[in-house]
Write a structure and sequence with these properties.
The complex is a heterodimer of chains A (449) and B (385). By secondary structure, chain A is of the alpha/beta class. Among the domains of chain A are: 33 residues, no CATH class; 81 residues, no CATH class. In chain A, the strands form four sheets. A seven-stranded mixed beta sheet of chain A has the order 1-14-13-12-15-10-11. Chain A has a six-stranded mixed beta sheet with strand order 2-17-16-20-18-19, with helices on one face. The two termini of chain A are 37 Å apart. In chain A, 51% of the residues are buried. Chain B is mainly α and 385 residues long. Chain B is built from 17 helices and one strand. The longest helix of chain B has 38 residues. The radius of gyration of chain B is 23 Å and the shape is globular. The termini of chain B are far apart. The chains are: A alpha/beta (449), B mainly alpha (385). Chains A and B meet through β21, α8 and α9 of A and α2, β1, α3 and α17 of B.
């Protein structure tokens, strides 16, 4: 059974250098790292010290406010460094790969496994970190089950990985993950797939399939949740990335925490942008060959897609949730009279004040801001890239003021910062919508919880 | 380009941090960013950005204003020469108009930008581009013979009171250009209405006079112009408001580029037409029986609805709100024209009035969204209990 959903509004950014459907096993990284900033709303408390030996699947740190929220080591090795920044904030926990120690769990037969046992295993194996809870997009809390669970195969962000390709050889593990999670909530998982998807997702059990038609950001779960089973005040839903659900399935099959990551490495400067089979926290240098790039200083490495990813250095590591690694040119050049309309049409623009929209084909991008930040003047443009019954500009202004009541009534529970990626991109006044919404959500998390 | 860039970098030095002129950096920055889009890269949020910025948006509006401004120059000369019975060519008319209008534009920009720069330096924020449009709009909606010092004072009032007092660009409630006109209208009424202000040199040369069509109608006079000349704009009026044809060219550019809201323009025309038709049916005086389509052609209606009502800061901000706002601008424009002969032109007051009500319109549009969400929440609570 499948339901068709069409999400109008939004736009696709067709960027040059999208990873081709070609999978290579990445060489094994020497060091791996976990960055607590990958987990929104989590304050880390270390469970290991520098010099400690750790096993694959062993908890490295947990959330200060909830000990059941634990993050596991993606590899067997030794903690060689805990990198700290200002105010001793933990930036990276670096693990050197060595040995072959693995934390093993005994999994009862899946046919009669109980809810409590599933939750216990998820918590103990640290696989709970693969599940995120809305509102706020924090790691799921095991003390309260959601009203439904959403998984989106449909990904629309520029350079976003194709989950159908990633799951091609993991359908078995994916099905196990689906089975376990649907057992937990006693109903099918909501699975969104692209309307033209040719893969065999339709043969899956325990899923309600939604065929989504629409441009970016229709691939973001928020917009799908809003159409399928909207989130109301006081309710929670869980969101799982497809590969993470396969990892959960793999755990319930083998009893071993699975940190597998298939990453689409994209960028117009790369010779062969393609997919790599690797592990969470791998060094970026194992995915991008520096010989392909003239000088790594001139490039920006992004954990995630260019609209909502996190900036990292070449010497950094792959993020926890990232199926996409983007490499784009830094744009620190001046452009003479670059603000004149209908000039510089090669700079991507949705605005009709340049001919960019008329020119088809793949676009090259860089990180230039293309202007300076200004007060919000133009109205009605954010709504074009925000296909939900929420007023984005008014919500952003409420977040700026930190007005809890307004944020709540304007729908803050239903959004995450990534949903404002295209709003950021297209804004004439160059405001930082994602940052503003993030700060709003932080206030809500602290004050309302 | 590299050579120019290097020169700019040399000039920039004293204005950067630690330099002698550090405090004046916003002023320098305004000139620098006019010449070059800066080398700033994204630091937070999306790593890639659209090529559009506020400068480009504002320049698009200025380009849209040029046809009406050019025709305004020609018409200024044309009205003058046909009254003085001097033989003239097209070029003569344009030159006469340019001679009268350019000083107005220069004064408007000089005074307005001086205040903008002063505030930018004082508050240490970049100079916003909004005044580039306002500064051109103000001379375009004034009578041609307005003394330059009055224009300057109107600009000061508009920028200080209507804009900076509220926090600058993006924060104002009233459209600054219309505030300048409203200020002049009430402060210097003899220079803003009557039959001696609409034609160039009418105040100096005895033989010249010219009443606007709406003024004539308000005095129960006969209109001597055809609909065609109302459309093309060879009639007396404020500098650039007369030609609906050239305003429409600008409107087309605004709509195609998406810079001006077509919703506001369309709903404004609908609002004015509906009320115009109703008055035509009533027909108690010459203003009421003035054909509804002519109402759309005369006075500043077209110019106002295309360039003033669509100002995104002072207009309604929500889509639904824009429809309501535009419609009511049209309705009030004709109502004021017909019911208040002391103000023969209603579009200025109609837009200012709706500027004030725009936040209220938005409030109700947003409230309906909020209560929709609340109802959904309550529905869920009822189901679970």
């Amino acid at each position: 059974m499948s339901t068709d959903i069409s999400i109008s509004n939004g736009a696709n950014l067709n960027l040059k250098g999208l990873a081709s459907m070609d999978l290579e096993v990445a060489k094994k990284s020497l060091n791996y790292a976990l960055n607590p900033d990958d987990f929104f709303g989590l304050t880390p408390r270390m469970l290991v010290k520098e010099g400690d030996q750790v096993s694959l699947g062993q908890p490295i740190f947990h959330d200060k406010s909830d000990e059941s929220i634990k993050i596991a080591s993606p590899v067997s090795g030794k903690i060689i460094e805990i990198v700290r920044g200002a105010k001793r904030k933990i930036l990276n926990i670096v693990i050197k790969r060595e040995g072959d120690r693995i934390v093993n769990f005994k999994i009862p037969a899946l046919s009669n496994i109980g809810k409590d046992k599933i939750l216990e295993l998820l918590v103990e194996s640290c696989s709970l970190a693969f599940i995120r809870q809305r509102p706020y997009n924090i790691i799921a809390r095991p003390d309260r089950l959601p009203k439904s669970i959403f998984v989106s195969i449909h990904s629309t962000a520029p350079y976003a990985a194709d989950y159908a390709f990633i799951l091609k050889n993991r359908m078995d593990e994916f099905q196990t993950g689906v089975d376990v999670m649907s057992r937990l909530i006693d109903k099918p998982i909501n699975l969104s797939i692209p309307h033209n998807c040719e893969s065999d997702f339709t043969s899956l059990q325990n899923v309600d399939i939604y065929k989504i038609k629409g441009a970016h950001p229709s691939g973001n779960e928020s917009f799908q949740i809003n159409r399928i089973d909207p989130l109301n005040s006081g309710e929670i839903v869980w969101v799982i990335k497809p590969e993470d659900l396969a990892n959960i399935g793999s755990f319930f099959k083998t009893g071993i925490y699975n940190p597998k990551r298939t990453v689409a490495v994209s960028g117009d400067s790369l010779k062969y942008p393609k997919y790599f089979d690797t592990v969470i926290g791998s060094s970026i240098s194992t995915l991008v060959d520096s010989k392909q790039l003239s000088n790594s200083e001139d490039y920006r490495f992004i954990n995630g897609d260019p609209l909502s990813g996190t900036k990292v250095q070449y010497s950094d590591f792959l993020g926890f949730y990232n199926n996409t690694l983007s490499v784009i040119k830094e744009g620190n050049q001046f452009r003479m009279l670059g603000w004149l309309p209908f000039l510089y049409n090669s700079v991507p623009s949705f605005s009709k004040t340049s001919f960019s929209w008329l020119l088809g084909g793949e676009k090259k991008v860089n990180t230039n801001l293309n202007g300076e930040e200004r007060a919000i003047v133009v109205t009605g443009e954010m709504e074009k890239y925000f296909p939900m019954d929420i007023f984005p500009m008014q919500l952003i202004k409420a977040c700026m003021r930190g007005d809890i009541e307004k944020m709540e009534s304007l729908g803050i529970y239903e959004v995450v910062p990534e949903d404002f990626g295209l709003v950021d991109f297209s804004c004439t006044s160059k405001i930082e919508a994602q940052e503003i919404v993030k700060s709003g959500i932080q206030i809500m998390l602290k004050e309302v919880g | 380009m590299d050579f120019i860039r290097k020169q700019v970098d040399v000039l920039k030095k004293p204005f950067t941090k630690g330099g002698k002129l550090e405090k004046l950096y916003p002023a320098f920055n305004a000139f620098e960013t006019m010449l070059f889009v800066p080398d700033h890269t994204t630091s937070k949020g999306s790593h890639i950005r659209d090529g559009v910025d506020l400068k480009r948006t504002m320049i698009t509006v200025i380009i849209a204003l040029v046809p009406a401004l050019f025709y305004g120059m020609y018409n200024t000369g044309y009205q003058y020469f046909i009254q003085t019975n001097i033989e003239f060519t097209f070029l003569d008319a344009v030159l006469h108009g340019a001679y009268k209008i350019f000083p107005m534009i220069a004064v408007s920009y000089a005074v307005g930008l001086a205040i903008e720069f002063a505030f930018a330096v004082y508050r240490n924020h970049p100079v916003n581009e909004g005044y580039l449009v306002t500064g051109l709009l103000i001379p375009m909606i004034m009578p041609i013979d307005m003394p330059l010092w009055m224009l300057a004072i109107s600009v000061v009032f508009a920028v200080l009171i209507a804009k900076e007092a509220f926090g600058g660009t993006g924060m104002n409630i009233l459209n600054p250009a219309l505030t300048a006109r409203a200020f002049a209208f009430f402060a210097y009424p003899t220079f803003m209405s009557g039959d001696k202000v609409w034609v160039s040199e009418a105040t100096n040369v005895d033989g010249i006079s010219g009443e606007t069509i709406l003024g004539t109608l308000a005095a129960n006079g006969e209109v001597a112009y055809s609909s065609a000349s109302m459309f093309m704009g060879s009639i007396p009026g404020s500098v650039a408001e007369t030609s609906v044809f050239f305003v429409l060219i600008g409107a087309l550019l605004l709509i195609i580029t998406g810079v001006g809201s077509w919703r506001i323009m369309l709903s404004g025309v609908i609002g004015a037409s509906v009320v115009g038709i109703l008055f035509n049916l009533w027909g108690a005086n010459s203003l009421m029986s003035f054909e509804w389509y002519n109402h759309l052609l005369v006075g500043g209606f077209a110019f106002g609805i295309v360039f003033m009502a669509t100002d995104p800061v002072s207009a309604a901000q929500t889509t639904k709100g824009k429809w309501i706002y535009g419609f009511l601008v049209g309705v009030f424009c004709i109502l004021i024209r017909v019911f208040n002969p002391a103000y023969p032109e209603g579009v200025m007051l109609a837009i200012l009035l709706m500027n004030v009500f725009a936040p209220l319109i938005d409030h109700y549009v947003i409230e309906s969204n909020v209560s929709m969400r609340r109802k959904r929440w309550q529905g869920v609570k009822l189901n679970t209990t």
